[in-house]
Structures are given as C-alpha cells and as structure tokens.
Amino acid sequence: MRPIFLRSVFRVAIIATPILLVLHYFATHVLALIHIFFQHPGIAITQREVANAYLNGTLQESRKAPQIPKIIHQIFHNWKDPANETLPSDWDQQRHTCTEFNPDWEYRLWTHKSSLAFLSTHYPTFLPAYLSYPHPVQRVDALRYFLLYHHGGIYLDLDNGCLPSIKPGSDSLDALTYFPLWITDGGRGALSNNILAARPNHPFWGRVVAELIEGRGALPLGSLTERLAGFWKRWWCLWGVLRYVEISWGVGQWFIGGVWDEYHRMLQLGKKDVVRGDTIEGVVDEEVSGRLYRLMMDSRPGMDEWVFFTQGRGGTWHGWDNWLFLEIGDHLWIFSMVLGSLVGLMGWLARRYWRAQRGKGYRKVKSEDMEDRSE
Predict the structure, then answer these.
(1) Which residues in 126-135 are b (16+ Cβ under 10 Å) and which e?
(2) What pLDDT is recorded for position 371?
C-alpha cells in the first residue's frame, strides 16, 4: 500500500510544482500591477496651486530662482514614413500654442534623424537597446527620459498644447520652472509620462536612464540564453495581444511609476546614493524629505482645472487593452474583489483536487472480505 501512496504523492508533486511556480510568477506580477493603481508617494500639487503661488510671489520667494531651463521638448517620429517630418495639422496647431505663449523659451522638435544623432553622440551604449524595442512608441518613451536627464526642460506629447500666461509679462510655463522636477499624475492611480519636467542631471532621471541602459524593456537579440530571456520578458503580454501592458510596463508610464516608488522608498531608508554616486541632499527638493512633485492633471469632468496645458487628439498607439486598464483604474476596488474571488476559487479547486488525489491508492474493504479473512 505504501508504494501506491508514494506514487500518488510523486504524481501530484510533478503536476503541482510547475503550476505553483507559474501561479507564483503570475501572482507577483498581478500584485505589482495592482500597486500601480494605488496612491503614489511624493507631493501632489494642482495647477491652480502652482498658479496662485506664482501670482502672489510666494513661489519666487521660497525658490529664489528657476531650476528648470526654458526648453520645450517634443518628439515626432513618423512611423509609416520616417523621412516625412511634417506634423499633422492638429498637432502643429497644438505646438504653436506653446511657442506663441512662450516666446522666450527654446523649442526643440526631435525627429527620427535628430533622435538617433543625439543618442549616438551622448549615449551610444544605449543605442542597440533603443533600436531593439519591439514597438516604435517605446523609442519615443525612452528618448524623452534621456532628453530630460541630459538637457532638462519640459517635455510635452504632441497632443498637448499650452494655455495663455496667467501673469502679464511672463511666459505661460514660467511658473513651473521653480521646481527641480515634477511628473504628471492623471488621477487614476497610474502616473503618466505625457508631460514631464526636470533640471538637467536630476538623480531621479539618472536612475531611469541607468535602468534603460541596462536593458529594461529591450528585447535581447544575442545568444540563445538572451533569446530565452527575451521570451520570458514578453510571454505574460501574450506576445503583443496585451500591447498596452507591454508598452506601459516595459518603458512607459507603469515603468516610470515603478522607478518613482522605488526612488521614494530609498529616500525613506535614508540612502544618499540614489543613482550612480549622485546625492539627493540639497538638490532634489527643499523639503527635508527630498520628495518629488506630482502635478495633478486629471482630465475627467469635475476635477481640478488645467491652468497651463490643453489636451488634444492622442492615443495613436493604444489598443483594446488601453480601455480595459482605464476601467480598472476607475473601478479598482471592484477589480480587486473580482480578482480575490478568482484566486479563492482556484484555491478551492486545488484543494478538492489534492483531496481527490490523496484518496487514490486506497480501496474500501467490503465486509465480505473481512469475513473471508477471519475464517
């Protein structure tokens, strides 16, 4: 009887081990995904709060001098015809609102050609990873981080424009230059990367750049080991079916949110070497904690007003799963309850299966057999 029992245990172990490994891997990624939609660290500020502080002079008094250089960055990569650098008419109109309302600012439009020249000159080690991204929008995402780290300034997607200045005699974006760094918070849990700003060589963007240079989000194309690693990087996105997930988690807004959270965790631990030997003391923020700013830009009705920016046609790379995750962000608790119910159901089924397997190898002894043995 013992060999039968051992065989059953061995059979269950063979079946259960890979299932448990897959469940563990899947669960860790699901937990990381859920965390993306919760509140992020940092200091949340609305556009109206920045505007009021600028108008009454408290922003200038507390900050002494602007920290972000007056440079506006935008990126236009024509994916269908790289040689054609003519902007669509609506994006061109959006762009002109920023140049019109910020005449003292330098404007830089980065195309395929100028982007490659910039990376080849300043970050040649990143160029192979940059070219290996499976989706063109990932190159646009990665490039903006390198531009902010290297040059500083304000980056805007082409579907964003600028509103007129709130203060006569100043440019419309001047008030936003008094912070060493700020990132966009769309109010749906996940941080956004559509409008970003920083002084040059900020350690947060240094950390982002360091991760990208080390291959975050790239598809390895070298040895067999690297190819297998590339496969496992993409299997959970169903090889492009979950396109929004792959882009956002690989190099996009979910990636930025993860680095943002990690950066602030290191601040709480009191570590000064946040990235490559640079220190945070006295350069990140005048707050003792060193926390960074989240500029609130929720576009839903009834949310805080937009004072500096406008929103036009966008989402040129979005797929069906973009809508899905926007709905998750708006109904996070419902999603969490459904996910918890599914996990509980899987646990219950696994327990029933285990009990059924434990019963194998045993045979109920009939009373007639017992009588035969007693004679």
Answers:
(1) beebbebbbb
(2) 53
